[in-house]
Amino acid sequence: MAQNSVFKPWVPNWAIILILIFCMLHSMVLLGVYTSNVTYSASFLDVDVEDLQFSLCVTYGTFLATIMIESRLFKFFPTKKYFIVIYSLAAITFILSAYTDNYSVFIMLRMAEGILMALPWIPLRQLLITRFKSKNAVIIGFSCNYGALLLASPFIMNIAVWLLENYDWTYMAYGSALFQVLCVALVMLTFNNNRFHKKIPLYQVDWASYILVLTAILCGSFFFIYGERKYWLDSPQIIMALIIALITGGLFIVRQQLVKRPCFDMAVFRYANLRTGFFLFVIFYISRATLNMCHSTMFAIWNWEPSRVAQVQYLNVIGNVIGMILAGIFLAKGVATRLIFSIGFLIFAVYHFWFTFLFVPDVALSDIVIPYILQGVAVGVLFVPLVLFTVSSVPVQYAPFSGTIGVTGRFWGSTIGFCLMQNAQVMLQKIHFTKLRQFVLSESPETNERLVKVTQSFVSKGYTTDDAYRLSVQQLINTVSKQAVLLSNMEIFTVMGYALLFLVILLLLNRHLKQTFDLFKNRVWGS
């Protein structure tokens, strides 16, 4: 069957490409709409920031597990009905979330959204690549696919913040559901009733492996996200989560060795470049995790409004576009892999070193423009080449499994990155707060002089002497706390900068990192 036969003949090719890219944004809406304004979402659900981060891990972790069995489901159902059902169910989950203030129910909905996010992801990319006739069709298709993933986040955040500021939580959910309805309409308009693949029976889906790997992912996420908050191995919950993750993960690995059709073939780990790609993905996402520290500084230290922080992220989008254009040129020209990676991680290092000097009590927007754009450039340069390098580093029969490795690296890199930054911030802030407090004791003449001035300013505003003194002490403590945050961020960014420089040196010295973008021979469709 011709692959383009799933589209109605009267629809022009350019319209099909735009519609497929638009429908890809469905996954970004599912992943990021609840985390676009963490403070508001956490307050609505009466949960902590860690709980919102765990909900994100639940969605993306379920996505990771589902892509291992997605191809079987896509090959069983008719293409048009497959997409219509997925987008319709996604709209329903958003409507349900609008009336959900119970965190446990919310987590169940997030799991459902992870499944609905995974099911159309690879099929849409397959269809998109078939629409390009260029010899670089795979590079263009992957760039559009992952470009949509990168660039959609700031737009979705701005829309969500606007809805939250002008309306309320339910309207944000309604807006997200409306997006899914638009996808349904576009699919009905564009697709015919033909199949993209030959039908395969559903009995071949390895549901047991799916349950095992999903359990391991969710328990592992719980361990990393809540470890610091629950004092690690002092908590029975953390110990139990770790044990379950290790047992189910081990059983999953053993099962893949025994079944005839594994949903993940462990033989892919025999290839050195795939292991390298996985390692670089983890480092890449740990490096990206520091951007959240910049955003939290904008909120907590510089006191920027949520709408302003959302708008600032368009600067990062500019960097992403520049980086992806550079990456596309590098790939089309056949630039060596290690050189592309070295350039990307070097720009990442420059961003970290530059931002180290910006963690001060107040800055102007003009001060952060260049390093903020550089972060986007680094992400744009690295993202697609990393994906292509990982998925094309194995023979054709292992291509789908190497794609799963790429998603695994992204997931665990994000999760471990959050864990590392969270623990580093808590530890360093305690150390710096304790040291700084020694210099603001009441015995210090400078401190007493400052307290007197601040107390007098409060008294002049109508406060009693006792209340004014308490407020001045609280203001001083807040100042010390903010300074501890800034010093901690400076140290973390400095360490990350040096770590990335060390990685660049290793990449430049590594003569075994080969160019493996033989995509046209492998016909890689993995994630």
Automatic annotation (TrEMBL):
The record's keywords, sorted A to Z, are: Membrane, Transmembrane, Transmembrane helix, Transport
Domain of life according to the entry: Bacteria
Localized where? Answer: Membrane
- Membrane-spanning regions, if any? 12-32, 52-70, 82-99, 136-163, 169-191, 207-226, 238-258, 278-302, 314-332, 339-360, 372-391, 492-509
Protein name (record): MFS transporter
Q: Fetch the InterPro entries from UniProt.
A: MFS_trans_sf
Q: Its membrane topology, per UniProt? A: Multi-pass membrane protein
Check the record and name the SUPFAM superfamilies matching this protein.
MFS general substrate transporter (SSF103473)
Organism, as annotated: Flavobacterium cerinum
